[in-house]
């Protein structure tokens, strides 16, 4: 199964994509993680992407597409994938469709998660990540057993540089301007599934699984 997860920053795409991929036994591909990794490694793509990411702007299409379309074609993605954070605009969606079509493949479903603005800001400002295994925590909703330490690998938790209020506002604006048009794109192809994602993660995951089965 080939699934795209759409939705504003903070709506819970990362958590749902990871859990969904685990449940379905398919690959989780996260464009933000791949870009953050490239920045950390100081690769050419990472160096070019950093400034855009710090401001909450979209990284130019050709840089992101290089990373993602390569991953989509890997043997690990043969059984399918959940794409999280890509595509972010129509150009990327068309590129993805073309790459899949060249292998006689296509997207099965684009799931759009929706939550209200207060839930989104609260989720993003409280989000903490593990510096070692990238596990997701939240200071209120999913607190670690020991403050600042990952439950799974004892790594240090950190707050993403772009999870501050000013950058969050810009990321939400960019989403409205660039990414929300994808809802229409997948609706026209009859592939859109809209899911209200205000509830906690387990409830939302069950809703998604029920709808796609
Ligand atoms: P995310 O982890 O999805 O919130 O992404 C973090 C940042 O990475 C975004 O604010 C963008 O700067 C960049 N980014 C992630 N995915 C894409 C994409 N598909 N196209 C352009 N920029 C992206």
Q: What form results from the Cα inertia axes?
A: globular
Say which molecules are bound, naming each kind only once: adenosine monophosphate
Query: Quick one: biggest sheet?
Result: 5 strands, parallel
Structural class: alpha/beta
What's the pLDDT, averaged over the residues?
Answer: 94
Amount of beta strand: 15-25%
Q: What helical percentage do the residues reach?
A: 40-55%
Order of strands in the sheet with most strands: 2-3-1-4-8
Secondary-structure element string: EHEHHHEHEHEEEHHEH
Structure summary, number of beta strands? 8
The helix count comes to: 9
What Rg do the Cα atoms give?
A: 16 Å
> What's the end-to-end separation, in Å?
11 Å
Uncertain segments: none
What does this structure look like?
The protein is globular. Strand 5 and strand 6 (136-138) form a beta hairpin. The strands form two sheets. Strands 2-3-1-4-8 form a five-stranded parallel β-sheet, with helices on both faces. Helix 1 crosses helix 9 and helix 4 runs parallel beside helix 5 (90-101). It is an alpha/beta fold and 213 residues long. The protein contains nine helices and eight strands. Residues 9, 31-32, 35, 52-53, 56-59, 64, 85-86, 88, 92, 162, 171 line the site of adenosine monophosphate (AMP).
